[in-house]
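User: Reviewer 2 asked us to show a designed sequence for the structure in our supplementary figure. I'm pasting the structure tokens here. Could you produce the per-position amino acids so we can include them in the response letter?
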């Protein structure tokens, strides 16, 4: 049996499910198959009144990856709110830069803390290699501004997600925008000093530990002595 035949069987099982439990099982099997032909059905499952099926569909769309992005973006404005929220989670999990505007909007203004959290986390998993080089600094700056704002969200789970993304962004911009790194470290230190939630402060400490070696390397890299290859090497053995 080829993938197309399998997809049709699994899709039919979703369409013919006559109970919540059978629908959940059918969507889980379809999601696990990881077949691109399943994308429209998995997207449709985001709008069912079945949270378990929606979670399974999100996982399936993330597993399929980039092929899921454009169909999600084309339909997202036509969704009811519940389906749109699940779609944002899927886009955040994939990390495709085509979803940047959707993730920025959701992270900054969605009324659901779980959607803001997912979108904030998604901003830290963007695939920067997809961005044209001439646009990279501009887009990274845009994401930085958004994360600095989101790190002040009233909900601790959103701030926690923002810290996670600030960490990954700090590492990414250590090459492209090293002069902006201090804005991240300053914000993290402020959160460490003032955030009321212990979990957030603990996550900040972890982020600082991850970021500091990167900044150290960036700071001292230009100061390395350049040895003329035509001069004889003097000194001990090289390592």
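Assistant: Here is a per-position design you can include in the supplement:
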């Amino acid at each position: 049996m080829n993938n197309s035949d399998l997809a049709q069987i699994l899709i039919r099982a979703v369409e013919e499910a006559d109970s919540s439990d059978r629908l959940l099982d059918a969507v889980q099997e379809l999601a696990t198959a990881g077949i691109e032909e399943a994308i429209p059905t998995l997207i449709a499952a985001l709008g069912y009144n079945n949270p378990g099926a929606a979670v399974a569909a999100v996982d399936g769309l993330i597993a399929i990856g980039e092929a899921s992005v454009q169909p999600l973006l084309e339909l997202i404005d036509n969704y009811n709110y519940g389906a749109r929220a699940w779609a944002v989670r899927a886009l955040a999990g994939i990390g495709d830069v085509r979803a940047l505007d959707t993730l920025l909007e959701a992270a900054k203004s969605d009324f659901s803390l779980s959607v803001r959290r997912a979108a904030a986390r998604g901003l830290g998993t963007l695939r920067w290699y997809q961005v044209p080089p001439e646009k990279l600094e501009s887009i990274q700056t845009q994401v930085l501004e958004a994360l600095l704002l989101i790190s002040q969200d009233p909900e601790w789970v959103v701030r926690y997600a923002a810290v996670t993304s600030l960490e990954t962004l700090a590492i990414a911009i250590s090459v492209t925008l090293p002069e902006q790194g201090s804005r991240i470290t300053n914000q993290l230190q402020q959160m460490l000093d003032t955030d009321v939630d212990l979990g957030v402060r603990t996550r900040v400490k972890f982020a600082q530990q991850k970021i500091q070696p990167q900044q150290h390397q960036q700071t001292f890299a230009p100061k390395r002595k350049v040895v003329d290859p035509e001069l004889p090497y003097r000194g001990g053995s090289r390592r």
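For the response letter, you might also mention the following. The domain at 1-94 is CATH 1.25.10 (Leucine-rich Repeat Variant). The radius of gyration is 22 Å.
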